Amino acid sequence: MKRSRAVSLGILGAAAFGLAACQTEEQTDAAAFSDEQSCVAAAAQSGWFTREDCAATFAEAKAVHEETAPRYESQALCEEEHGAGACGGDPAAASGGGGGSIFMPLLAGYLIGQALGGGRAMAQPVVPKAGGGFATPTGGTQLSRLNSTGKMGTTAFAKGPTTAGQPPMSRAAVASRGGFGGSAATRSVGS
After folding, report:
1. Count of domains in the chain?
2. Average model confidence (pLDDT) for the chain?
3. Is residue 58 part of a domain?
4. In-domain check, residue 39
């Protein structure tokens, strides 16, 4: 069974929308921040994450972004999916010495979530979407804004597939997926 997950963090909290078969997904406290400093500023008011969690999750989100962000064969194609000025070159491709350029969306911020069962805080990078808003690298979790808190399904923190070192998406590949977040937004139940 497949399902699509879209989450919008709002002023009064977070509301999760999507198809979830007949199961209810576990919810966790979550917050979206544009940078580590925003997280640190909010940590004093939070009862579930600390300044140390902010530093650790921001570092984790940066690493996950480098590994899982969507990659495109041209900057124009990347900007069609993520917005003007929202893309840059893939640093891993540039250092690899291969021919051609690969482009990926810039890290716009990150999600921090409370791990269930008292574990460490969870992290997930977010990238800009064309037309406004933000999404996780697969496009499966969408946010209307950053610097907000609420409840979110735990699948929002599932790591996407590795794209680093893979061939970049062509215009035809993006179209066949239905654009950024198209078919990549579906996850198996229990993933």
Report:
1. 1
2. 81
3. yes
4. yes
